[in-house]
TrEMBL record:
<feature type="transmembrane region" description="Helical">
    <location>
        <begin position="110"/>
        <end position="134"/>
    </location>
</feature>
<dbReference type="Pfam" id="PF13440">
    <property type="entry name" value="Polysacc_synt_3"/>
</dbReference>
<keyword id="KW-1003">Cell membrane</keyword>
<feature type="transmembrane region" description="Helical">
    <location>
        <begin position="41"/>
        <end position="60"/>
    </location>
</feature>
<feature type="transmembrane region" description="Helical">
    <location>
        <begin position="12"/>
        <end position="35"/>
    </location>
</feature>
<keyword id="KW-0472">Membrane</keyword>
<feature type="transmembrane region" description="Helical">
    <location>
        <begin position="381"/>
        <end position="407"/>
    </location>
</feature>
<comment type="similarity">
    <text>Belongs to the polysaccharide synthase family.</text>
</comment>
<feature type="transmembrane region" description="Helical">
    <location>
        <begin position="356"/>
        <end position="375"/>
    </location>
</feature>
<dbReference type="GO" id="GO:0005886">
    <property type="term" value="C:plasma membrane"/>
</dbReference>
<feature type="transmembrane region" description="Helical">
    <location>
        <begin position="81"/>
        <end position="104"/>
    </location>
</feature>
<feature type="transmembrane region" description="Helical">
    <location>
        <begin position="291"/>
        <end position="313"/>
    </location>
</feature>
<feature type="transmembrane region" description="Helical">
    <location>
        <begin position="325"/>
        <end position="344"/>
    </location>
</feature>
<keyword id="KW-0812">Transmembrane</keyword>
<protein>
    <recommendedName>
        <fullName>Lipopolysaccharide biosynthesis protein</fullName>
    </recommendedName>
</protein>
<dbReference type="InterPro" id="IPR050833">
    <property type="entry name" value="Poly_Biosynth_Transport"/>
</dbReference>
<keyword id="KW-1133">Transmembrane helix</keyword>
Amino acid sequence: MKIKNSYVKSIATLVSGSTLAQIISLASFPIMAWLYTPEEIGVLTMILTVITMFSGVISARYDVVIVSDKDEANVHALIKLSFLICLIASIIISLGSTVYFYTTDQFRSSIFWVTCAVFFLLFTSGLTNILMAYNNRNREYKLMTAVQVIRAIFKECLTAIFGMFKFGATGLVLATLVGQAAGLRRQSKSLESKIKDIWNANIRHVAILYLKQPIYSTPSIFVNSFSYASLNIFIQKLFGFSLLGYYYMAFRILGLPLTVISFNISRVYYEEASREYNTTRNYIKTFKKTSIILTLIAVPMVLCMYFLAPPVISWLFGGEWEQTGLFIKVLAPMFGIRFIVSALSPGMLISSKQKLELLIQFLFCIAAILGYMYTKETNSTIVQFLSIISYSYFAIYVVYFLVLYGYSMKNPSNA
């Protein structure tokens, strides 16, 4: 009973702070819609597309196992390895992205600053992943919660200030940069006394020990990120920057529960499920308990977004943003099941099924590409395109959930 109460308390701690961060972000959406044009928001979206694709794999997923490794010396080595990979990858990706941005008129004249922005956003995202993993390992849930709130305050306040002074897309990017970097010092405080041990750590051993991370987990997460980030590219190519701006606002609103609730539950779930597996060789109890919690949150959330989003968005943002409300309605069911399955997906890592996870993630990528090809060939509307994405992704997530459920009951060595 004590373990169960501790588990629920951990989730409650993270979600309570996340709820505050969510409220701050929600309050900023109308302000953002009033102060920026859809095209300016579309420009920000294209920069964030690169970050979305690579931020989850910027350390080759070595940062993820910081949570579960029992050896503190290995943890120090994993932190060092993750940091070095993050730094090198951020440089390579930001330089590589210049080729893409240079082909777009909106970015060509400011290509240097765009490249710098991409680098700093990628690098700070990687640092955040590493520190979050270490904080999670030490169950520093109050710290993790506080950092989320700090970042939301910095980002949304600066977004409003820059908007009032007509900074345009530049203001949106600057606000995102500062918000991403806020709280890093506070997160790293518990590591300050261990810096020497970290830099003297032997990274070769852990690099080989967790070689499955870059080989299987990294491609899987990248493919999953691409399946969503590519939608931004497809929408921009098919329908232009303005409609991309409308879609981005819908995506952010739908993604808030995912970012601040589902991901936090996932962190606690991974830590708790790993402990259960180390004891019982399965993690079905944690899986069922977490699934129930997620479902109880997801169902009313989806119903509210489906029925209330169109009129509420038009009323809050103005009639110009009616499209955003319609996009939310179309995508709500898919985001609901994604909310559940994403939090449970670390089960693939616990069960050592990274190969299968990669195959499942490829299905999302294939669905996105086929949806783009069909829409381009038939000159379909953006609503029709998003409907295709919503239905196909929903079906794949159902299959994904059933696979996760099956492996939660099995001993991974015999599965």
